[in-house]
Amino acid sequence: MNIQKLTLLAGSFLLSIATANAATEIQWWHAMGGVNGERVNKIAEDFNATQSDYSVVPVYKGNYTETMTAAIAAFRAHQQPHIVQVFEVGTATMMAAKGAVYPVEDIMNDSGEPFDSSDYLPAVISYYQTPEGRLLSMPFNSSTPVMWYNKDAFAKAGIDSVPATWPEVAEASKKLVASGMKCGFAIGWQSWVSVENFSAWHNIPVGTRENGFAGLDTEFTFNNDVVVKHLDNLASWEKDNLFVYGGRRGDSLPMFTNGECGMWFNSSAYYGGIKDQATFKFGQAMLPYYPDVIDSPQNSIIGGATLWVLRGHDDEDYKGIAKFMTYLSSPEVQAWWHQETGYVPITKAAYKLSEEQGFYKENPGTDTAIKQLSLNEPTPNSRGVRFGNFVQVRDIINEEMEAVWNGTKTGKEAMDSAVARGNDLLRKFEKANQ
Fold first, then answer.
1. Would you list the domain boundaries of the chain?
2. What's the distance, Cα to Cα, between the start and end of the chain in Å?
3. DSSP 115
């Protein structure tokens, strides 16, 4: 045999060995930019280092809407990733994508990976379960809105106790503005905070059919007297800078961290950012409520996102995905993620580990989100929302709320319009999925 043939055979042999030993690649599309994107990369790298059979490859695809849209388009083109991060309001859309989703509980069982739904925080997984209790997607970055407050500003303004009710928030805001602050409070992700969570906190529905959990033939009801009254109150407080609008998402964060506003209502997941940026002592407290509406609050609902697994890949790939899900939900990983970001730990064991590590003692208030979510057993009004086309509906709600802030509509006019426009989208979604 000549040298050339020997060389070819040797090369072929080495290639076959390399191929046999190559790790199975698992594509994970996500929406975590900045520091959280770096944390996502670390989770994948750490998992990859625990074994050599699988390699999880995180790919940033833009914001939540962009990531979900990209995944849907990729699935239609038969180029879908294995895992995609989808925010909570995309749940109904993912459930309606027939044949596209491989329920995470099925993957765990089919792959022989240990899985017990009772290990997870009920307030977190109930949002992503079928009526029969089967978990559809793996919770990853779950949060809930809290009240952030500037302790130094409170002391300067002579505010002795943290407000627990909305009338108390208004009084505290007056003192903050009188002390020289530009505003009393701001709100981020306003539909999520001031409509969805506000409603759950007061145990009133956002829509019929158990907020969409019980069927597609649902209609919105958030144009009720309680929500309308709250929006009108916010508009009246805006006149004296007790409340200042700072944008739809997290745009108003600098208004709090720069010391312009004494309070900020937004996700618990801003802990890492506030800790890095604030030059004052800050705290977290539960959301306020109206005592003339409810004697005590019900429970808040989660936001954030979960990891959905898409069909169309080899069986071996799904074994690797199941192992990654086991790793991702381990107490050590979840405790680290929770403590670094402010997202809630998805398991009871991770919560307990954080407690044992002294995290809550050293960082008072960082368990506020968990306490809020677990305050009471969720009701049909406070389990969450599961409406079709809700990504677009949120845009409508935001648009109508902005009309209230700029004085062109009353709370009633804005919410009546949002409900009518939202119901049109619900009917389109229902028709498309009959």
1. 20-143+303-362, 145-300+388-432
2. 67
3. -
Question: Nearest 10 degrees: CA dihedral of 276, 165, 387, 126?
Answer: 70
Beta bridge partners of 186: 264
Tokens for 321?
A: 């995905």
**How far apart are alpha carbons 432 and 104 in whole angstroms?**
25
* Region 20-143+303-362: CATH code: 3.40.190.10
- Tell me the pTM: 0.90
**Six token digits for residue 310:** 């898409």
Q: What is the dihedral of CA 85, 86, 88, 94, to 10 degrees?
A: -130
- Tokens read off for 106: 């099925």
Question: pLDDT for 338-386, tens place per residue?
Answer: 999 999 999 999 999 999 999 999 999 999 999 999 999 999 999 999 9
Per-residue pLDDT tens digits for 283-329: 999 999 999 999 999 999 999 999 999 999 999 999 999 999 999 99
Per the listing, tokens 């833009």 go with 62
Whether 187 contacts 193, CB under 8 Å: yes
What gap in Å lies between CA 4 and CA 12, rounded to an integer? Answer: 12
List the structure tokens of 34: 């900045």
